[in-house]
Each structure stands twice: as C-alpha cells, then as structure tokens.
C-alpha cells in the first residue's frame, strides 16, 4: 500500500503559534505513516521536515534549485539526512541551478503534485504559499488551512484561503480522517483551551502574561522580554514560578518553552 502524503507549507517567518501548529500537525501525520511534503525553506517547511526525522517518519523535500545547490545553506544537514534513507529530495532543475526567485512558483506545483492534500499553517497575504494552494486547487487537491489570530499579519493568507473555500482544520485527526488513515494515539484538539484556562485561574497576572507568549516551541529569553510589557525582573520571577509549578521548561541557552 502506498503511503498517503500531505504538503505542509507556510510562512518563512512564522509566529510561535505557527511553529507550534506546524510541529504538532507534522508530528502526528508522520507518526501515523503519512509522508510529509514540503519545500526545505526556512520557517514552516524546516519545522515540518525536522519533526518527521525526529519521529523517524518519511518526508519529501522539493527544491527550487539544482540538487547540488542546497538552499537555504543552513539546511544542508537536513538535506543530507532526508537523502540518507528518510525520504527523498526532488528537483526538476538541472545541476548548478541557483535558487532564483522565479524558480519557487514552479517548484510549488510539484509540492502540491506530490501531495494528496495541502495544509497551510501560516501565510501572509502576499505569501508564495498561496501559489501552492492555487496549484493544488487546479490539480483537484483539497486545501486545508489552520486558522490564526485576526490580529496577525501571518494569518491573513490562511484566512483568505478559508474565505475562498479552503477547509479550516483544528486538529491533525481531521486530516487523517480525510486521508482515510486509521486513528491511533489520538491527541487533543489544538484549540481546546479548557484545561489551559483552568490552570491559568491559579496563576498571577504576570505569570498569565508571560504564559501567553509561550508555546511548545522554544523562545529565547531576550525575545520574550521584548514581547511583554513587564519589567525584566517580573518576567524572570514569573518564569521561575511557572517552572516551579511544572508549567514551563527552561532550556540551555536561555530558551523557554511549555513543558510536555
């Protein structure tokens, strides 16, 4: 039996929300045996490929350059590992082709072509991700989009897709159901905040504010300090209390993430 495949695409500059959604969707799909297809670009693409490797799933990277020109260059280790038995790296461009801007819309039709469905995690209103979604519709593929904040520019593209007929998706299980993949190890709906709200009732105002900027994807302390309106001393105190309560985890290098 041929494994089903889903193209996971999105912004090169995702928010923490987008990073977490890309991680959770890609992880669940890979664990269920779904091949995750993406473009090896920075941001959502990189997260999608990496999490597949973490769970020993399969992934396909479609390049906008020749196979001997890895772009972005920092993804060379990722390129090598995918090539080394964890999937495939594909390009229709000749060796020596540099990653020119005009190559990527062409590349995008292959991402949708290799996929049974497309999942758009985050996209701005002028994102190249929308080109992939258009290719998918022209090829008769289903397009799914993760809803985001109405205040986030990174969700303007996904909301446009939903208004245009894309299916809003709230958990990986919905994609698995569409693909006909049998459910196993069902995970909670990403938008089920009941438990989080119950936990937050026991937190101070400062702890709640700090927590609102955290996700399962690590954020550096300096970035967190820039995003909050709290004095540095209050942020540090809140992190200490949240860590003590078992809600957050402080990682080496001053990175912080939600625990679990």
From TrEMBL:
Pfam family, one: WHD_DprA
Superkingdom of the organism of origin: Bacteria
Any single biological process term in GO: DNA-mediated transformation
Domain Smf/DprA SLOG positions: 4-179
InterPro entries: DprA, DprA_WH, DrpA_SLOG, WH-like_DNA-bd_sf
Residues annotated as domain DprA winged helix: 196-254
Family: Belongs to the DprA/Smf family.
Protein known as: DNA-protecting protein DprA
Gene label: dprA
């Amino acid at each position: 039996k041929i494994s089903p495949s889903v193209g996971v695409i999105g912004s090169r500059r995702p928010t923490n929300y987008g990073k977490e959604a890309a991680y959770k969707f890609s992880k669940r799909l890979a664990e269920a045996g779904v091949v995750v297809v993406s473009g090896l670009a920075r941001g959502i693409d990189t997260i999608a490929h990496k999490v597949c490797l973490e769970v020993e799933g399969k992934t396909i990277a479609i390049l906008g350059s020749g196979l001997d020109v890895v772009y972005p260059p920092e993804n060379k280790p990722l390129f090598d590992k995918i090539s080394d038995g964890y999937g495939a790296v594909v390009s229709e461009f000749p060796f020596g082709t540099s990653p020119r801007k005009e190559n990527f819309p062409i590349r995008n039709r292959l991402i949708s072509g290799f996929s049974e469905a497309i999942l758009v995690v985050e996209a701005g209103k002028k994102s190249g991700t929308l080109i992939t979604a258009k290719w998918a519709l022209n090829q008769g593929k289903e397009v799914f989009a993760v809803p985001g904040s109405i205040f986030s520019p990174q969700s303007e593209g996904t909301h446009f897709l939903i208004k245009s007929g894309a299916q809003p998706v709230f958990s990986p299980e919905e994609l698995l159901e569409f693909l006909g993949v049998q459910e196993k190890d069902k995970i909670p709906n990403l938008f089920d905040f009941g438990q989080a709200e119950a936990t937050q009732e026991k937190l101070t105002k400062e702890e709640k504010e700090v927590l609102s900027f955290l996700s399962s994807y690590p954020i550096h302390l300096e970035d967190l300090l820039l995003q909050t309106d709290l004095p540095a001393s209050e942020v540090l105190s809140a992190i200490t209390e949240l860590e003590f309560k078992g809600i957050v985890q402080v990682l080496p290098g001053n990175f912080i993430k939600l625990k679990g």
